[in-house]
Amino acid sequence: MNFLRKLLNSLAKPLDKDILLANIARLDGEGRHAQADALCVSLLERQADCAEAMHWRGVIALNGGRYADATAFIERAISVLGSNPAFHYDLGEARRLTGEWQLAVDAYNQALDRRRFDAATFDGFHQYDLDFTFGAYL
After folding, report:
1. What mean pLDDT do residues 85-110 have?
2. Closest Cα partner for 1 from 41, 37, 44, 32?
3. Angle at 4 between CA 93 and CA 32, to 5 degrees
């Protein structure tokens, strides 16, 4: 808890979004989802248009089984930064998990379209998931 308090107190200093996003990813990876989400909220309070923090909130909700919340957060991230294929992929996952198959396929197609133009933000892990998802569900 001290780590999170120190990190939140450091927000009074100039915002370094990349450091905060790295800490969100680390906290989420450690299974400290509530703390990661709290850090997302803090980042969004200071930078309301931070698509990456919106997306992280969606991923955290998705992994917690809160699919409606995940969809809302990820759609909000896409409205700010629609060129990121990972955002569209995760929206597809949220839609698939709620049984909205056509919307899931549409989101996966958007991810594929954007991957062609922005390969730097679309890692091999997401590509593997995308290939698996298409093969398993279509």
Report:
1. 95
2. 32
3. 35
Percent of the chain residues past pLDDT 90, beyond the cut: 66
Give Cα 81 distance to the centre of its chain: 12
Tell me the C-alpha distance between 33 and 27, whole Å: 7
In whole angstroms, what is the distance from residue 13 CA to residue 10 CA?
A: 6
In angstroms, how far is the first alpha carbon of the chain from the final one? Answer: 44
What's the helix, strand, coil split of the chain in %, to 5? 80, 0, 20
Is the CA virtual torsion 54, 58, 61, 63 positive or negative?
A: negative
Mapped onto helix, strand or coil, the DSSP state of residue 82 is coil
Tens digit of each residue's pLDDT (9 = 90 or more) over 61-74: 999 999 999 999 99
Give the CA distances from residue 78 to residues 8, 45, 57, 71, 97, in Å, rounded to whole numbers and listed in that order: 26, 18, 13, 10, 19
Instruction: State yes or no: pLDDT of 90 exceeds 60.
Output: yes
Tokens representing 132 are: 């698996």
Residue 122 DSSP symbol: S
